[in-house]
Amino acid sequence: MDLKKIEKFIDKQKVSFICSIDDEPHPNVKAILNPRKRHGLKEFYFSTNTSSMRVNRYKSNTNASIYFYHKGLIKYVGIMIKGKMEILTDQETKNMIWKKGDTMFYKKGVTDPDYCDLKTENFDIK
User: How far apart are CA 66 and CA 55, in angstroms?
Assistant: First the structure.
């Protein structure tokens, strides 16, 4: 699949899976809503809770992967991208990624201390 087709494929998905590494070190996978914003296939932005286990894992080990898939009638199609995950808590990024309905998850709004963003770095398709 060429890069433009991969980008279109990713944009059509509603859910993606992010993977972090725990202290043992074993991979841990979590379903998450698709990226809020994307710059090509190198930068992906996700919203999550600052207090989440995933954020704590990325604090100690930034290695990460994202998996996108589609279940067709006959076959599955999947794309894995791997690299590093950065935790962003600056207000500028929070404002950029915020969506109107997010108050359902973050009661204090865009300035909620339990709201942060994850951003991929140095990601490559595998």
Answer: 15
**Whole-angstrom Cα distance, residue 20 to residue 56?**
10
Q: At residue 71, what are phi and psi to the nearest 5 degrees?
A: -95, 110
For residues 124 and 14, what is the distance between their CA atoms, to the nearest angstrom? 21
Give the span between the Cα atoms of 57 and 44, in whole angstroms.
18
Return the pLDDT at 126: 65
Contact between 87 and 59 (Cβ < 8 Å): yes
pTM of the complete model beyond 0.85: yes
Whether pLDDT at 6 is above 90: yes
What H or E segment, with its residue span, contains residue 97?
Answer: helix 91-97
SS3 category, 56: helix
**Partners of 86 in the β-ladder:** 119
